[in-house]
Write a structure and sequence with these properties.
single chain; alpha+beta; Aminopeptidase; seven-stranded mixed sheet
């Protein structure tokens, strides 16, 4: 079980959280590097996002999408994704966990994404003894996400492509990795 950190609280999203998942995706700036600014419809949340999220939701391992909120007042800030790298293709790797994040624009620049991802990564080590690395991908123009990756101790690995489940297109991304000494 993953407990709250000093200023943030965490819980895994479920199918019942569709409204919160949808609300975050309504800001074109939040969606800028994901869908070129197009907000998600509730239909997309219900028919694409939630089924994909539930496919890798495994609480005993800490996999899923973690709702992040301010501990003091439970204000919803955004989320952190945790899943095995390449979960949806034939190169799935349970020894490499992908971290991803999406936060409301009002919380940007306050260290929440870095704090939440770092805290969850630390907690995940005990739940995943086979873990060899953490990784993350981002659009190469997404300087804020790349900055979070660097603050998490990740280093540039390579440029690759990501098949977007939303657009159905292969999107160029940068991949960063942090090896775990064991």
């Amino acid at each position: 079980m993953i407990l709250a950190s000093k200023r943030l609280s965490y819980r895994l999203f479920t199918e019942e959280d569709r409204e919160e998942l949808w609300a975050l995706d309504q800001d074109p700036e939040v969606m800028r590097f994901i869908t070129k600014g197009e907000p998600s419809s509730m239909e997309r949340i219900e028919t694409l996002f939630i089924p994909r999220m539930m496919a890798y939701n495994l609480p005993i391992k800490g996999w899923g999408i973690w709702r992040v909120s301010v501990s003091e007042d439970d204000r919803y800030l955004g989320w952190v994704l945790v899943r095995p790298e390449n979960f949806f293709d034939d190169q799935r790797d349970d020894t490499s966990l992908e971290l991803g994040w999406r936060f409301f624009q009002s919380s940007w620049g306050q260290g929440y994404a870095t704090e939440a991802a770092a805290y969850l990564a630390d907690q995940l080590l005990a739940l995943n003894p086979e873990l060899k690395q953490f990784m993350a991908i981002a659009d190469k123009e997404n300087e804020a996400s790349i900055g979070v990756m660097k603050k998490l101790g990740m280093s540039f690995s390579n440029e690759t492509s990501f098949l977007s489940p939303v657009t159905g297109c292969s999107e160029p991304v940068v991949r960063y990795v942090k090896l775990i000494p064991r």
